[in-house]
Structure formats: C-alpha cells, structure tokens
Amino acid sequence: MDLSSQVFLDLVDSVIADVASECHRIARLGLDRDLEVVEEELRLSVEARAKVADPSNNLETNTKYVVDIFGQTHPPIASEVFNCMNCGRQVVAGRFAPHLERCMGKGRKARTNATTTTRSSTAAQNRNPRRSSNQRYSPHPNSGSENQLASGSPGVASEDCSNGTVRGNGKGD
Amino acid sequence: MKHSVNPPPTPDKDVAEAFEKDELTLREIINIKLVESGEKENLMELVRDRLVECGWKDEMRIACRELVRKKGRKDVTVDELIRVITPKGRASVPDSVKEELLNRIQNFILSAAP
C-alpha cells in the first residue's frame, strides 16, 4: 500500500535528519578528530618547533632578551628605579640587594665603612683588630662595583648624606 | 423545490486535486492516530535500532564526514547535509528492515481503520 510506504519514508527521513544534525554538530565543534586533521596539526607543530630550534634565527635578539608567552621581553638587569623603604633613597632595582646589604648593615663591610667615616680613628683602631680576624673567616662578596657605591654611603646609623644618585636614571614606566 | 445544481468537477485536473486532497487527509489521519496511540514512537525506535544494527547509520556518518571534508568544517550546513544524504539514505535501507517496518505499518493501518 502506498500509504504505508509513505509512512515508512517519513520515518526514515526523520532518522536521516537526526544523523545529519549529529554530524553537523560534531563537525562544527571539531569533536571528530579526523585522521587528516590530526596529521595536519602534527605537521604544523613540527614546523613550529623546527623554527624555534633553528640556530640561523637572529641571535642578537635571542641571547639577550628572552621573550615570554605574552611577547614581553625582560632585560637581564632590572632597570626600574624606586625608593628604598629603609633609607628612602632612590635605588636601581637591579642593585637593590647590595644596597640593602649596606643600608641595613648586614655586617662587617657596612660597619667597617661606618666606623671609619663617622667615628674617631682611635675607636676604629680599637675595633679594627677584631674586625680583621673576623674578616678572614667569613669572606665577603667583594665586587668592584660595590666599593664604588660604598665609598659614599654610610652605615645604618646614618643621617642622609649626599644623595646617592645611582646610574641609570631611566625610570621603568 | 428548487435545487441548486452543483456541476460535478468534470475536468481531470480538478479530479486529481480532489483525489490528492483526500489522500493527504487520509495520511494526516493515519499520522494523528500513530502519534496518539504511541505507535509512531515505537516505530521510530524500531527503525533506529534496526538501522544502527545493520550499519546503515555508520555509512551515513561516513558520507556526512566526506561532505564536511569537502565543504570545510565551518561552512557546512544541516540543510546541505540532509539534502545530500537523503537520496543515498533512502536507497540504502536493507530490504529486511523495510519489510519489517512496512508490515507493522500496514497492520496498524488495518487495525486503525474503522
């Protein structure tokens, strides 16, 4: 009977529509990880890796400044200038640690300079022997640049001396 | 008494149209009865099960994937998929499935007919 065939086709059409809808959804959402797609993406990722590892890239730009995932570059020595919260002076961020060492009087080097500049020589002489023996046992990280700054800066118990203008006045903005 | 004589629809076109209209109504009636009795739902479930069992649905999904690959994942539409799949789908239903369904439908129509 033609009528039953029509009903039958109607049912089949419904199922076809279901299948089409399902496949459409999977296609649009990219849920169906097709072999081709996976291969293509794999190929692209291999290319990208090769590009990154390629030594013929601009070495000048790569060795000094590393680019992070946001595309920002960070110079190896932090150049931002701010005020030390201990002594209130302007300090270059990259030199903050050595500054703090002196500024907070970590120990011998700072105090030695303080005593020699602020106190009388007799007092310093009395203290010096002890100092020198101590110095033998505990090595200081003496760097040439440190002495440069230390010569002008006093120890902990210091009033504001000459404003230590540090190099690199460029403010990191 | 005066009759208003309505001339019968003699031209062939009108006859055909009338015949079609009756058949549409009949089909609609059957459809309504199918839905009301719940038989339509049973038949749908039966059709789906049979078509999945025999691999027809997988064949259709492969055909869909082919079309998606051709047209591009983001450009393909549901209508397009249906349009392309339907002729192939209708033709590839296994005879056994078709027979079973037709029998059930015919039985229903016979039992529903007054």
Provide the fold topology.
The complex is a heterodimer of chains A (about 170) and B (about 110).
Chain A: H1 2-29, H2 35-53, H3 59-64, E1 66-67, E2 73-74, E3 81-83, E4 90-92, H4 96-103, H5 108-118, H6 121-137, H7 144-150
Chain B: H1 12-37, H2 39-53, H3 56-71, H4 78-91, H5 95-112
Subcellular location (chain A): Nucleus
GO molecular function (chain A): zinc ion binding
Protein name (chain A): SAGA-associated factor 11
Describe the 3D structure.
Chain B: Keywords: Activator, Chromatin regulator, mRNA transport, Nucleus, Protein transport, Transcription, Transcription regulation, Translocation, Transport. Chain B: GO terms for molecular function: transcription coactivator activity. Chain B: This is Transcription and mRNA export factor ENY2. The complex is a heterodimer of chains A (173) and B (114). Chain A is mainly alpha-helical. Chain A is built from seven helices and four strands; from the N terminus they run H-H-H-E-E-E-E-H-H-H-H. In chain A, the strands form two sheets. In chain A, strands 1-2 form a two-stranded antiparallel sheet. In chain A, helix 5 packs antiparallel against helix 6. The radius of gyration of chain A is 36 Å and the shape is elongated. The C terminus of chain A is likely disordered. In chain B, helix 2 packs antiparallel against helix 5 and helix 3 packs antiparallel against helix 4. The longest helix of chain B has 26 residues. Chain B is extended. By secondary structure, chain B is mainly alpha-helical. Classes of the chains: A mainly alpha (173), B mainly alpha (114). Chains A and B meet through helix 1 of A and helix 1, helix 2, helix 3, helix 4 and helix 5 of B.
